[in-house]
Design a protein that fits this description.
signal, 9 strands, globular, HGSNAT_cat, single chain, alpha+beta, 527 residues, Immunoglobulin-like
């Protein structure tokens, strides 16, 4: 199944690099497409030049604005649907039409196709708003926005959006990958059902293992080697059953996370849902890191319990924890450092935080905390607790107090720490977000702490918020303050591992506890 998922992801990644754009949606607002054929555009030379420049650009569409309003130019601005409470960004100035030559003013602009756009047209005379159009352009599409005068007395205009050349459907690779995956899954299910039929199963075994067939034939004929061949088989089987079993659900979860991680890291076919959100919102790419952290917490619980059960001393286990954490942090700083793009790595531009650094530090805190306060018999239910409903939580109350104390510290720093030039408790991206009122407040207290303690040159220089929100301040998504929440996420994974150990082989109890925890977590998020 993992191979099938990997094949489907590879197919989607390969085809996604060729066709990448959201499909065409119907517009909302005053303007609407009048048809799919080319209209009488005028300005043919400008349009042809724009089309030549536009050829082959991903995530963009060509918009040719035609101004048929005499004696006044137009100012075109746009607002991305992914930019929360942002200012309109100027795109182009469209000159007025030439009445003597009966030639409209034209201007060609490239517009983004990953998210819906709101187009705003204002008159250059008095900055009067003429029309506003909400539309989701399609990749490689060719559009025209025709502005006409409806009534000279009332000075009303019409804004009509015309599709000159339709966009491509970029979701076909995703559909194809899904169909390939479903086909492979159907073949596997059919093969599993056929293998339950004795003649088919015997024929397959005969083709795959002819020596075993010969052994069976010889045993039926009384071969003198029968005893040796039969007696030589059970040992490997006994050895394999005696080996330590793995938690298949955790390995499956880890495998799916790895597939998505590889797909995302290699571009994700340029689909917006395989990219990290600029600030507000959540995509598939944003789930990979929390999944890994949760899996790491569950693995800590299972591995520490196994090592201590097999007789390893706490000092030896602590040494392994320190060494593994050191290696993760060192690899993150020296090997996987994005500041290599700025030139040879030196202390002047060394990025200190990072993904591996946060994973290493989180592993150190959670594993050391578990090792320090773990008590024998807690997972087996030998310890008595006053409340049976919380018997998988109360034995670990010291860990819970420590983690909740960290969360209280995070809340106080996030919402009470005064940040120069920013409102207290600010969580926005800065830049043009929040209507441009706080351009240098990217990340609020979290960004301020990183810049204060680490320095601007030692954190991430090009955060994802710089594209849409046009931020100029460095901001590190793996900064100091956010590590507290990562520790909390890993501890929740640790608690999941405790539930699995406590209710071993009691699948209904495990699922009911997971369901209760899910309801509690979702209710906390909603409230």
């Amino acid at each position: 199944m993992a191979a099938a998922a990997g094949l489907a992801a590879a197919v989607a990644a390969a085809l996604g690099a060729l066709l990448m754009a959201p499909g065409l949606t119907q517009p909302h607002g005053e303007g609407s497409p009048e048809g799919s054929g080319p209209g009488p555009l005028g300005g043919e030379e400008a349009a042809a030049a724009a089309e030549r420049r536009f050829a082959g650009r991903m995530d963009q569409a060509l918009l040719l604005v035609r101004n048929e309003v005499p004696a006044q130019g137009l100012r075109l601005a746009a607002l991305s649907g992914a930019c929360h409470q942002c200012l309109y960004q100027f795109l182009a100035f469209i000159p007025p039409s030439n009445e003597s030559l009966k030639k409209p003013g034209t201007a060609a602009v490239m517009v983004d196709t990953q998210h819906p756009l709101t187009l705003l047209l204002n008159s250059s005379v008095g900055d009067r708003e003429l029309c506003k159009i909400q539309y989701h352009f399609g990749e490689f599409g060719n559009y025209s926005l025709v502005v006409k005068t409806l009534s000279t007395s009332t000075k009303t205009v019409s804004c009509d959006l015309v599709i000159n050349e339709g966009p491509i459907n970029s979701y076909l690779p995703i559909l194809f990958a899904f169909l390939v995956y479903m086909g492979i899954l159907a073949i596997l299910i059919a093969g599993h059902l056929f293998m339950k039929i004795d003649p088919v199963r015997n024929w397959v075994y005969k083709k795959l293992n002819p020596r075993e067939t010969d052994r069976l034939i010889n045993s039926e004929l009384g071969s003198p080697n029968t005893t040796d061949s039969v007696s030589s088989d059970p040992a490997p089987r006994l050895w394999s059953t005696a080996s330590r079993q793995r938690l298949r659900s955790l390995d499956t979860f880890r495998g799916l996370s790895l597939i998505i991680m590889v797909f995302v890291n290699y571009g994700g076919g340029k689909y917006w849902f395989f990219k990290h959100e600029s600030w507000n919102g959540l995509t598939v790419a944003d789930l990979v890191f929390p999944w890994f952290v949760f899996i790491m917490g569950t693995s800590i619980s299972l591995s520490l319990s196994s090592m201590l059960k097999w007789g390893s001393s706490k000092q030896k286990v602590l040494g392994k924890i320190l060494w593994r954490s050191f290696l993760l942090i060192l690899l993150g700083i020296i090997v996987v450092n994005p500041n290599y793009c700025l030139g040879p790595l030196s202390w002047d531009n060394l990025r200190i935080p990072g993904v591996l650094q946060r994973l290493g530090f989180t592993y150190l805190v959670v594993a050391a905390l578990e090792l320090l306060f773990t008590r024998s018999g807690a997972e087996s239910g030998i310890l008595e607790t006053p409340c049976p409903a919380l018997q998988d939580i109360l034995p670990y109350w010291p860990q819970w107090i420590f983690i909740l104390t960290l969360e209280v510290i995070w809340l106080c720093l996030t919402f009470l720490l005064p940040v120069p030039g920013c409102p207290r408790g600010y969580l926005g991206p800065g830049g043009i977000g929040d209507f441009g009122n706080y351009p240098n407040c990217t990340g609020g207290a979290a960004g301020y702490i990183d810049r204060l303690l680490l320095g601007e040159n030692h954190i991430y220089q090009h955060p994802s918020s710089s594209v849409i929100y046009q931020t100029t301040m460095p901001y590190d998504p793996e900064g100091i303050l956010g590590t507290i929440n990562t520790i909390f996420m890993a501890f929740l994974g640790l608690q999941a591992g405790k539930i699995i150990l406590f209710y071993k082989d009691q699948h209904k109890q495990i699922m009911s506890r997971f369901l209760v925890w899910s309801v509690v977590m979702v209710s906390q998020i909603v409230t």
